[in-house]
From TrEMBL:
Sequence intervals crossing the membrane: 6-22, 29-48, 54-73, 85-105, 111-130, 150-169, 175-196, 216-249, 269-288, 295-317, 323-343, 355-373
Domain of life, per lineage: Bacteria
GO terms, biological process: potassium ion transport; proton transmembrane transport
Compartmental location: Membrane
UniProt-recorded name of the protein: Potassium transporter
GO molecular function: antiporter activity; monoatomic cation transmembrane transporter activity
Organism: Idiomarina ramblicola
CC annotations in GO: plasma membrane
Keywords: Antiport, Ion transport, Membrane, Potassium, Potassium transport, Transmembrane, Transmembrane helix, Transport
Keyword Electron transport: no
Membrane topology: Multi-pass membrane protein
Listed Pfam families: Na_H_Exchanger, TrkA_C, TrkA_N
Domain RCK C-terminal: 570-654
Keyword Metal-binding (UniProt): no
Length: 655
């Protein structure tokens, strides 16, 4: 069982079991991958003798992660965030480098080794932090955006560090010239990538999209991400930076959501492999022997980075909650720290004991990070005296919904759920929604909707949003098996509620009713009723007779409509995204072009979008007055077709 295939098969088997087990006990999957790597590594089972054999494949996970991140951060956003990226990010990296360098020199009395250690400790984990921010729906929060901005500068700072360390080891006198030459090459390749991304890639994906072939779209996405990463790698930059730039350019196109959906399975699998390779590098004997020193170093590193980030952020005028939240999120050592340690080791700058301790610090800090980010709000509230306004679901429910009557719970906030929410708002009926899509929740919350992230089939989530006290509950997603799970939990909490369930068809109508559904609304049958009502109306049938006929069918649970002749294309969805109007909530950052301009000064019609609402300081203004001036941190709710909304976003940010 020493062959490459057998080793990989055993590693995957252990990973599957551990991920299942860790998710069952509510622990992040990243911890499972780290443990799987430790088990499969040379110090335990020895299935994989040399973790470097899988280094390239694992690095592709980081490349795809940065590509998907780039899709969410367009160039106008990067320019608008320059204060955080090049202000807060630069202060964190340079400040951490200086402090860790002095500590390392006092300890080792060697500048080269101290710089390698300082560089590794100053960088945080892009892979872990971004993944956890996404899972906990915090990427759109101010603290989340600050964390991402710092991580972006750290990825840029890796480049000179990877150049300087070998030069220090070789004791070459031309360090300055070599560094300037490398930076010039980097600027050139970045300019080339941005040009290609701006003018070539949108045309390329437009032609590929016309072919309507999923495989071709996926292959093209992978090719673009890897080619961009390869180009920056050839010029001495990190592959992750090239992939990020390519994603950022494509993030301005109408294909961004499809690109992210296509890349996600490959990204998640390769990221899992990356974390297993990190676990393989941990030498258990040396780790246990030096555990007390590793824990001390981890605490010192965390205190310095948290204090530095929070202090600089507060000096820049950020709220205490956001400053501390960003600092706590970035306390760990990152994946590029392992790269720097490996590079310093190959040039003989670090001893084996120091290398083992550094890997131990990295693995342990990365293992703690998912727990810290998922518990970020309680941790922030420990150091901030006044409570964080971004409180938990349970706190929001108990403090914000007291005295409300006729409240409705919507499980699922897709298109149907959002439509119901708008009609309920129009009638003044208070309601709350739960959805398990973090991106959708972020957009909806930014637009002023009362929706929370969570799986509505989990009893603790339903209890947190007050399902046991709601009179009317709507399950708005057309997934019968999932709806059955939700119904089971709802009826345990609230036997008396009237529950309306949306279903795709009538295949599980009886099953849903027996599970506790008060009313089941099948999409296909309701569409048939709407069509026949139009036909009867055009045929001269009185409207009262039509309404009575429809009501009879619904009360009879569509008794005369069951059964149909199934065709080969029955389930095909005919809707095309470009024929739909989308809502988009955009937060205006500092430096946005539209800041300070009145609403009537902006030509909304020219950009073929409408300003549906404006949110400022948690207060919503539907159809705002034309003389209102836009300000930093205003949330504008735009409505229009996808490509026009994307273009309008760039217009508001950069003019």
């Amino acid at each position: 069982m020493n062959g490459t295939f057998s080793s990989l098969l055993l590693l995957l088997a252990v990973a599957v079991i551990l991920v299942w087990l860790f998710r069952r006990i509510k622990l992040p999957a990243i911890l499972a991958y780290l443990v799987a790597g430790i088990i499969a590594g040379p110090d335990v089972m020895g299935w994989i003798a040399d973790p470097d054999d899988y280094h390239l494949v694992a690095e592709l996970g980081i490349v795809l992660l940065l590509f998907s991140l780039g899709l969410e951060f367009s160039l106008p956003k990067m320019i608008a965030m320059r204060r955080w990226v090049f202000g807060l990010g630069a202060a964190q990296v340079l400040g951490s480098l200086l402090i860790f360098l002095l500590i390392g020199f006092i300890w080792l009395d060697e500048w080269a080794a101290s710089l390698a250690i300082a560089g590794a400790l100053a960088l945080s984990s892009t892979a872990v932090v971004i993944k956890q921010l996404k899972e906990s729906a915090q990427t759109s929060t101010r603290r989340g955006q600050m964390s991402v901005a710092i991580l972006l500068f750290q990825d840029i700072a890796v480049v000179p560090l990877l150049i300087i360390i070998p030069l220090l080891a070789s004791d070459d006198g031309n360090i300055g010239y070599t560094l300037l030459l490398a930076l010039a090459k980097g600027a050139a390749v970045i300019a080339v990538l941005m040009t290609i991304g701006k003018w070539v890639l949108p045309y390329l994906f437009k032609e590929i999209a016309k072919q309507r072939t999923d495989e071709l779209f996926v292959l093209a996405t992978l090719l673009v991400a890897l080619v961009a990463g390869g180009m920056t790698h050839i010029f001495g930059l990190s592959m992750a930076l090239g992939a990020f730039l390519a994603g950022m350019m494509l993030g301005e196109s109408q294909y961004k959501h499809q690109l992210e959906a296509d890349i996600r399975p490959f990204r998640d699998i390769l990221m899992g492999l990356f974390f297993t390779t990190i676990g393989m590098q941990l030498q258990l004997y040396g780790f246990v022997q030096n555990l007390h020193w590793i824990l001390l170093a981890l605490v010192i590193m965390a205190v310095i980075k948290i204090a530095l980030i929070s202090s600089v952020a507060r000096l820049m005028g950020e709220r205490d909650e956001d400053a501390w939240g960003s600092g706590i999120s970035l306390f760990q050592m990152g994946e590029f720290g392992f790269v720097i340690v490996a590079l310093a080791s190959s040039h003989g700058l670090l001893s084996k004991e120091i290398i083992t301790s550094m890997i131990g610090i990295g693995v342990l800090s990365m293992a703690i990070t998912p727990i810290a980010i998922h518990r970020l709000k309680p941790l922030v509230n420990l150091v901030v005296r006044h409570p964080d306004p971004l409180v938990d679901i349970e706190q929001q429910r108990t403090t914000g919904n007291e005295g409300l009557e006729n409240q409705v719970l919507i499980c699922g906030f897709g298109r149907v759920g959002q439509t119901m929410s708008r009609f309920l708002d129009a009638e003044g009926i208070t309601h709350i929604a739960v959805d398990n899509d973090p991106m959708r929740v972020q957009e909806a919350v930014a637009g002023g909707a009362r929706v929370y992230f969570g799986d509505s089939s989990r009893r603790d989530i339903l209890r947190a949003v007050g399902a046991e006290k709601v009179d009317l509950i709507i399950i708005s997603f057309a997934d019968d098996l999932r709806a059955l799970d939700v119904l089971k939990e709802l009826r345990q909490l609230n036997p008396e509620a009237y529950i309306i369930v949306r279903s795709k068809d009538d295949m599980r109508l009886t099953q849903l009713q027996e599970a506790g559904a008060s009313q089941v609304v099948p999409d296909t049958l309701e569409a048939s009723l709407m069509l026949i009502s139009h036909v009867l109306n055009r045929s001269g049938i009185p409207i009262r007779r039509i309404l009575a006929r429809l009501d009879k069918e619904r009360r009879n649970h569509y008794g005369e409509m069951h059964g149909f002749f199934q065709g080969s294309e029955t389930d095909m969805d005919p809707e095309l995204p470009d024929k739909l109007e989308f809502l988009r909530a955009l937060t205006l950052p500092e430096g946005a072009w539209a800041n300070g301009k009145r609403i009537d000064e902006l030509d909304w019609e020219k950009h073929q979008v409408q300003l549906k609402a404006l949110r400022r300081d948690d207060e919503e203004f539907p159809n705002p007055d034309s003389d209102i001036e836009l300000q930093s941190q205003d949330v504008v709710l735009l409505v229009g077709k996808p490509r026009y909304v994307e273009a309008a976003e760039r217009w508001l940010l950069e003019g």
